[in-house]
Specification:
Layout: E1 2-3, E2 6-10, E3 17-21, E4 58-59, E5 66-67, E6 73-75, E7 78-80, H1 82-90, H2 104-113, H3 122-136, H4 150-179
Antiparallel strand pairs: 1-2, 2-3, 4-5, 6-7
Helix pairs in contact: 2-3, 2-4, 3-4
Length: about 180
């Protein structure tokens, strides 16, 4: 069955021959006080792949390496070793990690203030800012840095003032045209 790190056997259902490689820790002598995660019948307590002196408490769901409590990384209900975690993170396969964040309050403030440099664009950006604020007002504020809503209030104030200024300008021009 087990000889030199290779396991040979057959499938219980279809009797297809199976071959597998076993980590050396399965055959290692038992460490005192270690909680074993070795397969039943292996007769040995497993130790961490990275730390030979620490007992393994789980195995990596990706590569199968035995992990101690220090190396064990639990994400999305699965357990990973540090190397698999890093590789999966760089490939973007772990969805719960947050690498960037859109600060909608700062975007809204920039949408209302920056177009003042080229003021004719404010006829478009002021209403868009109000729509943007309405859309993202209720987004969850689970930021790494806690943020208050004062930027939203200030952006709304600027956008409403610009909309009022454009309405007043059109009213003034229309009144002049009608009068003449």
């Amino acid at each position: 069955m087990w000889a030199g790190g290779v396991v040979e056997g057959a499938c219980v259902s279809c009797e297809t021959p199976l071959h597998g490689r076993v980590f050396p820790q399965v055959a290692a002598p038992e460490v005192a006080g270690a909680e074993s995660v070795a397969p039943p019948g292996a007769g040995a307590a497993a130790v961490c792949y990275n730390h030979d002196a620490k007992p393994a408490v789980s195995a990596c769901d990706q590569c199968g390496r035995f992990l101690c409590a220090l190396c064990e990384l639990s994400v999305e209900g699965r357990t990973y070793c540090p190397s698999c975690f890093g590789r999966m993170d760089s490939q973007g396969r772990i969805q719960t990690l947050k690498h960037h964040e859109t600060r909608h309050d700062s975007v809204a403030l920039a949408m209302s203030v920056l177009p003042l440099l080229l003021w004719p664009f404010t006829i478009i950006t002021a209403p868009l800012t109000i729509v943007y604020i309405c859309k993202y007002w209720s987004t969850p504020r689970q930021s790494i840095q806690p943020r208050l809503r004062w930027r939203f209030y200030l952006a709304a104030l600027f956008a409403l003032a610009l909309c009022a200024a454009w309405i007043w300008l059109f009213y003034f021009i229309l009144r002049r045209v009608v009068r003449d």
